Write a sequence for this structure.
């Protein structure tokens, strides 16, 4: 795989007491040109964050001594580290851990054993969100600094960019809040819970038909006329790096059916064999 050396090289901390898990995650991420540091205990992780500026942390939940929850709680209570995105590594059966992780401030989770596709999707997504937050902070700083020499046109342009960035981040926050609610409801097998889950799925789907998404769809349709409405809807999910299993959940179909649809979509988008469809759509400019 050809690596784009012009991109910022992000630094990621992996915290897991099982060396094989560390090795697997590190190999996947290093192949994408990420800088990797690891520790095998919560105590060592807290020391490491004081030595290196990390862009993201992959944190195992169940570890001897200080577990992942306590590490997360300490980091999120410290102003120096609270903005670092934390993704929990957890077993599929640990639904309660997933819910608690969100409550403590984790941004996401990856279930073990994890695949390269899932791990990379989660990591790329949250590094992208972190960049959007930094862009928003930078715009706010520009507008809060002494702007006596700034003309009205420049100020209006910055304010427009800031409002658009805030709206985008609000949607992202709403999505993860809804997903957290859905994870809680999945523990409940009652008919009321199933109705609530269906309602949340509809709300999540509606996040992708706002003005910006319509412009995204319009640009794609203009460049690739063969795209259908269902193709464009799938493009929105892939742009936000949803996994096949998640898309299948929202579209009420099977992951295999989503895989088939993605293969057809790749052809319509004229992508090369090794070109990542998520990267293409995430970076698509219009």
């Amino acid at each position: 795989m050809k690596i784009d050396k012009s991109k910022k090289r992000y630094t990621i901390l992996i915290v897991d007491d099982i060396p094989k898990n560390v090795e697997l995650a590190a190999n996947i991420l290093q192949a994408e040109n990420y800088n990797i540091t690891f520790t095998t205990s919560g105590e060592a992780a807290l020391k490491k964050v004081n030595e290196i500026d990390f862009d993201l942390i992959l944190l195992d939940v169940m570890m001897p001594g200080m577990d992942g929850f306590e590490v997360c709680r300490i980091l999120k209570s410290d102003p120096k580290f609270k903005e670092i995105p934390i993704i929990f590594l957890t077993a599929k059966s640990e639904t309660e851990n997933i819910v608690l992780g969100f409550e403590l401030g984790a941004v996401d989770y990856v279930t073990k054993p994890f695949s390269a596709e899932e791990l990379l999707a989660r990591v790329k997504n949250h590094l992208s969100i972190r960049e959007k937050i930094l862009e928003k902070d930078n715009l706010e700083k520009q507008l809060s600094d002494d702007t006596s020499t700034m003309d009205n046109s420049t100020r209006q342009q910055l304010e427009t960019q800031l409002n658009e960035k805030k709206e985008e981040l609000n949607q992202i926050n709403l999505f993860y809040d809804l997903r957290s609610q859905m994870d809680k409801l999945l523990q409940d097998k009652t008919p009321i819970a199933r109705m609530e889950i269906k309602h949340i799925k509809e709300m999540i789907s509606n996040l992708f038909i706002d003005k910006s998404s319509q412009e995204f769809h319009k640009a794609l349709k203009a460049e690739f006329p063969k795209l259908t409405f269902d193709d464009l809807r799938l493009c929105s999910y892939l742009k936000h790096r949803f996994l096949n299993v998640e898309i299948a959940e929202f579209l009420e179909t099977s992951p295999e059916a989503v895989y088939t649809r993605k293969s057809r979509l790749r052809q319509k988008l004229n992508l090369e064999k090794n070109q990542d469809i998520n990267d293409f759509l995430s970076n698509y400019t219009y």
